[in-house]
């Protein structure tokens, strides 16, 4: 067994767009599904939280006259669409995945409880936890931190299109330097945007390390779980 036996993988909705401007890119979805299936077959228990920004962002709706609560609920439903897409992609490859939702949504997915997810792990399923926290005003970053703590994950893996945490945005500043490892307090003091502050604080207070890595490079998830130094480790 590698470095972690149970993880919470956070995927951004925007990353699912691939090179498209909207929606779910089939190639990106397939790549993610292959990587998740691969590590699940190694015996790693994988919980997944996906954002919904490729379909709808609650905050962006405010400028268009959408009520914040309604906008956030629309965003939560977008995460369910993405979760069903990932489940379907994993199953099409012969893998096993279940979707759990933060609010009642049968038969779309089972209502989330920690016990149900742990039982799914025992049966060899990947657990995709959709619908955010089920409450407005909380991001899917916060949902991933909450679920990671709840299911007693050993690490929160934040899969992005960037290969770690940098001193500045590497897409804007070519002189930005990558951190291999940094503490929560250092990241906070340097105002590095690892996750939103609520999620960041929850991980720090519950001693849940975060690994920020490039999920768009095929094979990176497996390498990370086998103990290779991939991405940036943020810890207490």
Task: Jot down its keywords.
Carbamate kinase; nine-stranded mixed β-sheet; two-stranded antiparallel ribbon; 11 strands
Descriptive overview:
The protein has 236 residues and is of the alpha/beta class. It has one domain: Acetylglutamate kinase-like (Carbamate kinase), CATH 3.40.1160. The protein is 37% helix and 19% strand. Helix 1 links the parallel strand 1 and strand 2. Helix 1 packs across helix 3 and helix 5 runs parallel beside helix 7. It is globular, with a radius of gyration of 17 Å.
Summarize the structure.
This protein is an alpha/beta fold.
Broad structural category: alpha/beta
- Report the span from N to C terminus: 24 Å
Strand order of the largest sheet: 4-3-5-2-1-6-10-11-9
Named at the architecture level, the CATH assignment is 3-Layer(aba) Sandwich
* Annotated CATH homologous superfamily: Acetylglutamate kinase-like
**Bulk shape:** globular
CATH domain class name: Alpha Beta
**Which spans of ≥5 residues are poorly predicted at pLDDT below 50?**
none
CATH topology (level 3) name: Carbamate kinase
Order of helices and strands: EHEHHEEHEHEEEEHHEHE
Helix content: 25-40%
Question: What number of structural domains do the residues give?
Answer: 1
Radius of gyration, taken over Cα atoms and rounded to an integer in Å? 17 Å
Strand content: 15-25%
Largest sheet geometry? 9 strands, mixed
User: What is the number of helices?
Assistant: 8
How many beta-strand elements?
A: 11
């Amino acid at each position: 067994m590698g470095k972690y036996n149970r993880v919470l993988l956070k995927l951004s909705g925007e990353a699912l767009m691939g090179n498209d401007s909207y929606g779910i890119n089939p190639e990106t979805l397939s790549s993610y599904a292959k990587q998740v299936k691969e590590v699940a077959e190694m015996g790693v228990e994988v919980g997944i939280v996906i954002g919904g920004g490729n379909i709808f962002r609650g905050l962006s709706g405010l400028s268009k006259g959408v009520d914040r609560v309604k906008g956030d609920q629309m965003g939560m439903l977008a995460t369910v669409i993405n979760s069903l897409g990932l489940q379907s992609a994993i199953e099409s490859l012969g893998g096993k995945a279940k979707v759990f939702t933060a609010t009642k949504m049968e038969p779309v997915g089972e209502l989330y409880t920690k016990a149900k997810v742990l039982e799914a792990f025992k049966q060899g399923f990947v657990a995709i936890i959709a619908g955010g926290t089920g409450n407005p005003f909380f991001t899917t970053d916060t949902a991933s931190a909450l679920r990671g703590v709840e299911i007693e994950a050993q690490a929160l893996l934040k899969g992005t299109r960037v290969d770690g945490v940098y001193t500045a945005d590497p897409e804007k500043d070519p002189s930005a330097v990558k951190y291999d490892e940094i503490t929560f307090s250092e990241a906070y003091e340097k105002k590095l945007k690892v996750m939103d502050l609520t999620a960041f604080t929850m991980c720090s207070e519950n001693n849940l390390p975060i690994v920020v890595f490039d999920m768009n490079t095929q094979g990176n998830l497996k390498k990370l779980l086998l103990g290779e130094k991939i991405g940036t480790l943020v810890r207490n």
